[in-house]
Amino acid sequence: MSVLRNLESKLAGLVEGTFSRAFKSEVRPVEIARKLAREMEQHRVNSLSRTYAPNEYVVWLSPQDREQFEGYEGELKRELSGYLLEHARRERIALLTRPKIEFETDDALRLGEFGIQARLVRASGTGEHQRVEQADHGHTMVYSTSDRLREELDRPRGPEPTGRAMVLAEGKRMVVGASGATLGRSRDCDITLGDPNVSRHHAEIRPDGSGGWTVEDLGSTNGVKVNGRRITSPTPLEPGARIALGTADVRFVVE
Hints:
Layout: H1 3-15, H2 29-42, E1 45-46, E2 51-52, E3 56-61, H3 63-68, H4 73-90, E4 100-105, E5 113-119, E6 121-124, E7 131-134, E8 141-144, H5 146-154, E9 165-169, E10 172-175, E11 181-184, E12 191-192, E13 203-207, E14 213-217, E15 224-226, E16 229-230, E17 235-237, E18 242-245, E19 248-254
Parallel strand pairs: 3-4, 11-12
Antiparallel strand pairs: 1-2, 3-5, 5-8, 6-7, 9-10, 9-19, 11-13, 13-14, 14-17, 15-16, 15-18, 18-19
Helix pairs in contact: 1-4, 2-4
């Protein structure tokens, strides 16, 4: 397993059935993972032959957000560490140690806000004389779920799509509801796919507000392609479009 798939799969057993619904305004685990990867990339340091990045991260959460992770915080830290390790390998970033993640509470943060501090910890010497040289934590970058919520609130409420939308996959015809559908391996998705290369919550098809449809990657491990092109933002869907969810082939039709 690689990238977010490992994180999604391991946490699924802890929060099965609530993973996509419980974190409406709160901080989502996958959002933390994405921003940790961003901090890793933005604090890269180039040497003569390698590119290094921070290997220790502190995630600051509001009291309410910290409370929601109670009971599986340790597992979450391990999976975030594994995600960063895989991300570093994929981006050819050198790490001096396995990434270490710690959670702290900051009363100044509001629900849905979180901060990340990153630093590079370097070990010097060998054997019993080995010591660790730690750089100070850098500036704390504060992120918020408000952009996600604003996007949900601001989605156009235009004409309803005409015709019945469906996806053809794995030998089945599955209806896309009038308000859209999520696709993935999780049982709480609207359309469940069995391909192991599909993330638990892989993509979402929804109305575009003008009578058509769009598809969006939900932070999947293996990405989404429409007619052979990788997408990074909501992308229009025409009837007959082919959607690749990792290696799973899905065809979008309107009847």
